[in-house]
Write a structure and sequence with these properties.
- By secondary structure, the protein is α+β, with helices and mostly antiparallel strands.
- The chain has 5 helices and 6 strands, in the order E-E-H-E-E-E-H-E-H-H-H.
- It has one domain.
- About 30% of the residues lie in helices and about 25% in strands.
- Strands 2-1-3-4-5-6 form a 6-stranded antiparallel beta sheet, sandwiched between helices.
- Strand 3 and strand 4 form a beta hairpin.
- It is globular and about 45 Å long.
- InterPro entries: tRNA_Adeno_NH3ase_assoc_put (IPR023869).
């Protein structure tokens, strides 16, 4: 997709502060530029967990989690890099070549990115393997497992109207 046209989807910053979850809308540029998404998440101050969930064009999702040493990320479908700049940027950051066949679907990155929040890598793999689900549905499953489903639903109800 061209970097100039808007990318359908949404970006949500998920913050856990003092045992409570909060979801904030991310700027739409976060769906086009990985660096913009990372920068926006780094500006979020919290003593707890901070990570981003990006659902891009009903095709794939990205989970980003900045840390002092860099950024952990998970791209749900490596083949998306053939059509979407942000997915290509994710593979570049991971130092992984894009697949040659877009019919192959597999994730790239840290499957254990949310393990400390209650979602171990094998369970996240099961969610990603649900290819009949849209990315927002997969992210809802992630939110359910980690404990912030009500906050994400409430937030999505306001931004997706």
């Amino acid at each position: 997709m061209s970097g100039e046209e808007p990318v359908p989807g949404f970006g949500v910053a998920v913050i856990r502060e003092d045992g409570k979850w909060r979801c904030d809308q991310m700027d739409n540029i976060a769906l086009r530029e990985l660096d913009a998404a990372i920068t926006e998440l780094r500006k979020t101050r919290s003593t707890g967990a901070v990570f981003g969930l990006l659902a891009v064009d009903d095709e794939f999702f990205v989970v980003l989690r900045p840390s002092p040493g860099g950024v952990a990320l998970l791209l749900s479908d490596a083949a998306a890099a053939l059509d979407y700049d942000i997915a290509a940027d994710a593979l570049d950051l991971l130092r992984v070549d894009p697949p040659e066949d877009e019919d192959e679907v597999w994730p790239e990155g840290s499957l254990d990115i949310l393990a400390d929040l209650g979602l171990p890598a094998p369970e996240l793999q099961v969610i990603i393997d649900e290819v009949d689900l849209y990315p927002d549905e997969q992210l809802q499953m992630i939110a359910q497992r980690c404990g912030f489903a009500a906050e994400l639903t409430k937030h999505l109800d306001t931004i997706l109207q």
